[in-house]
Amino acid sequence: MEQRKIGQSGLSVSALGLGCMGMSEFYGPTDETQSLATLDRAFEIGVTHFDTADMYGSGHNERLLARFLAGKRDRVVVATKFGIVRQPGQYARTIDTSPAYVKAACEASLSRLGIEVIDLYYAHRRNPDIPIEDTVGAMADLVKEGKVRALGLSEVSADTLRRAHAVHPISAVQSEYSLWTRDVEAEVLPTCRELGVSLVAYSPLGRGMLTGAIAKTDDLAEGDFRRANPRFQGANMEANQHLVDKVRALAAAKGCTPGQVALAWLLAQGGDILPIPGTKRIKYLEDNVAAAAVTLTAAELAALDAALPPGAAAGERYPTEGMKGLNA
User: What's the CATH number of domain 3-208+269-293, 3.20.20.100, 3.20.20.150, 3.40.50.300, 3.30.457.10?
Assistant: First the structure.
């Protein structure tokens, strides 16, 4: 698979990575055996970028990844995050980006992952009451100590990115980015490009909507957090289905899946875009990775831009609790 750089860190990864969150919670029932098989298959077919966070499954996701990493550590890039603090089993959260917490969280992640250094370490969200300079200063100390290779921020504003980058080079900003979530194109992505920062795109398939496989809310398993997501409810769901129909039509004409079209569109936005579609099943993993071989023509890209312009999706992208800390 094509290799893409992570900012100016010196790290390179497969153009398509793997988001591991759903292997621990949020998207219905989980199965560790199935997830480990999917991780192994991802590695076999060239995926080298694996994304996790300390809050996914309250540490479970990092421990799961540790089992996969055995014997492969020097051939993959591991990204994890800190800052969202949850009580076990609850979605409600607080944000802690204090210097003391940065360092304690890093030690805990290193222990759960069973590794000596984190390749890419993100502040998952920003607490606006704590200066970003203080947070990044503590993260920079981790780089000096050899515990972290490169620094990242998630869901920050362009101003926050500039302030952070002035303290220590930021290698990546992770934000939701897809055909139905294009907010970053206004300010964040241009600032990333000005500073030489990669944009790691999470939920590049619109939380599964852009695959065309979700027709109604009842298609989602009990306990799936999308049931409470405004974009998957009522009139919003119906309106968003019309957007997906446009992707589905282009995919049918091209002989590929809607999800592959969505990922190919994202890859075509620039070599500094690193999508990390998440899945816990080998079939969907292989479908996603095959998108790297799909090339969209200029006319097809223009048609998608016109069909799903910024702001086209109906509804907020998170419930009220999840909207906290976005673009901070």
Answer: 3.20.20.100
Spans of all domains in the chain: 3-208+269-293
Helix (H, G, I), strand (E, B) or coil at 85: strand
Q: From CA 200, how far away is CA 16, in angstroms rounded?
A: 10
Give dist(CA 7, CA 261) in Å, integer: 25
For residues 292 and 302, give the distance between their C-alpha atoms in angstroms, rounded to a whole number.
Answer: 19
272 contacts 210 by C-beta, under 8 angstroms: no
Distance in angstroms (rounded) separating the CA atoms of residues 143 and 266: 30
pLDDT by residue (tens digit) across 238-297?
Answer: 999 999 999 999 999 999 999 999 999 999 999 999 999 999 999 999 999 999 999 999
Digit-coded pLDDT (tens) for 77-117: 999 999 999 776 566 689 999 999 999 999 999 999 999 99
Going by C-alpha positions, the residue among 174, 189, 120 that lies closest to residue 148 is 120
Q: For 151, how many CA atoms within 13 A lie in the half-sphere containing its CB?
A: 23
Please tell me the distance from the alpha carbon of residue 146 to that of residue 88, in angstroms, as a whole number: 30
The CA distances from residue 319 to 150, 154, 178, 322, in Å, are 31, 18, 18, 5
> Is position 122 annotated as part of the catalytic site?
no
The number of residues making up the chain comes to 328
- Catalytic residue among 27, 56, 101, 202, which? 56
d(CA 321, CA 265): 30
- Against a cut of 0.90, is the pTM above it? yes
